[in-house]
Amino acid sequence: MPNRLATATSPYLLQHAGNPVDWYPWSDDAFAEAARRDVPILLSVGYAACHWCHVMAHESFEDEATAAQVNRDFVAIKVDREERPDIDAVYMAATQAMTGQGGWPMTCFLTPVGEPFHCGTYYPPTSRQGMPGFRTLLDAVTKAWTEDGDRVRGAAAEIAARLSDNTAASLPPAAVDADALDRAAATLGAGVDPHNGGFGGAPKFPPSMALEFLLRHHERTGSAESLRHASLTCERMARGGLYDQLGGGFSRYSVDAGWVVPHFEKMLYDNALLLRVYAHLARLTGDDLPRRVAEETAGFLLRDLLTPEGGFASALDADTDGVEGLTYAWTPAQLSSVLGDQDGAWAASLLTVTPEGTFEEGASTLQLRADPSEPARWARIREALLASRDTRPQPGRDDKVVTAWNGMAIQALAEAGAALGRPAWVTVAAAAADLLLDLHVVDGRLRRSSRDGQVGAAAAVLDDHGCLADGLLALHQATGEPRWLDAATALLDVALEHFALDEPGAFYDTADDAEALLHRPRELTDNATPCGSSALASALLTASVLAADGGRYRDAAEAAVRGAGTLAEKHPRFAGHWLTVGEAMVRGPLQVVVAGDPGPLLAHARQVAPGGSVVVGGVPDAPGVPLLADRPLVDGGPAAYVCRGFMCDRPVTTEEDLTAALAHSLLHP
Fold this sequence. Notes:
Number of domains: 4
Strand order of the largest sheet: 1-3-2-4-5
Number of helices: 25
């Protein structure tokens, strides 16, 4: 008998709809029931592609005896962290405060008014490795609640009050000027793994936003070190098992320092952010490797994550039939069975597939540590192996369409398509944007997600507004269509009205009319994705030079970046997106306006304009495109105008002169 999750739009909640646990979705009904019965709430937070969420579900939530205990002593609530990042943020702060760490599945015990009194992550069914068994924990919580309930409630209220105070605190503002950006680049460079690239040891996550910053820093300053650090990391990630050598796309992280063995879930946000990085590196250097990786990653998005409605699914699961990596790992014998002995041996050597294995049970992840000596042979073998892999059991797909992550994909495809001459990517990005604007905007306000063409009830949070606005602004630049600019500024106006604190440039992650939680979450650090405030600052800065009344957007962007200045300089690994915005702000952002019919001059501008620049093309005085106002042709032909702030160089008409004008603007900011 399905439980209350059977009508959810979240694939994660639907995974638990057949559990014997009597789950509630997050709802007033759940809290009212806990109050009526005077029992604590068991809050379980995870997401569909989470390996350890699956493990705990199989071990505990599918177990009849455990479910009976949960149902008797608790009201159980299941939350998809991707659908409700606001709830996740509130209780992750509690979990980290209580335990010093966080992760998913997140397991919290709450009073009937939602105040947390005990939090953790994964719990095994029986006690092991210093972790209490889940049923043992349930017994302890029930005993504390029934025998010492007043103390438990009092402690929970104190915890909630402290968390609220911490959330309201701001960092001292600091300038993010050229000197601060140089210091941040030096700090990042000092922490780069000199052999493997990236930062730190195992596990190692792809530092996409820090890489984007280093590329922009190189373009502004000419720093060879910044380019070297970014190039090294991009190469090592792309040649290791983190990258899918057959199907393209990146896994979420590597369990080792050398990018050999991934945690196999593939997230939309990682691949969108990394597509941007590799496309910009290819544009900057002209090298084959980043261009190939950008093209293959875009191919992965379009082949494996595109939904029938035109949006992008959230993720591919880490597991296949309950086994992590089952779809992706190979043995030498499996290669030979597909390719024959000769090609199988050649492929095993090329892809580092060894008899001992680099993964589990003698299997290996595929690595491409060097370019093949026979490219045509590799292309044939890659196609054969991918076709064979497609016959294997496949990982599940979380086909929920998340606004923020789709905004990142739209921006990546629009920018990469324009820079690398792939207009089909821009077309797909436009279709995804149309879906979000048609489906996710309800009564003038943005929603967080949809599935199968049905929009969810959860309101959008700050990163949804910032990331989608950034994607729409990238589409405006790639297509010249005014409607994308209009839609982006409408989102920014809503964000400025409903998310701002009293202090300039500071924003909550939830709107002032959103559901009231224990406190309004507010995150300033960039983690796996840009935080909502840095995403919004990026879009505000870009809109400030694209929109006719951009001054107020500029003021808000500058205030936001100053508010994160201390974080950006002292902890640049957790401020990568802030730093990319800072680079664009210091540079202007640089504006390149090509007046005239689209052609080689506009294509060249998109290839050579440094990251963070605004590039717009179209006929002079085109309606709805303020940057094209008063930009006449020169001698009846296309002309490029390079501007910074309120100053423009004289127009140029050749690709060579445009390159020189951009170089001059960098030398004389």
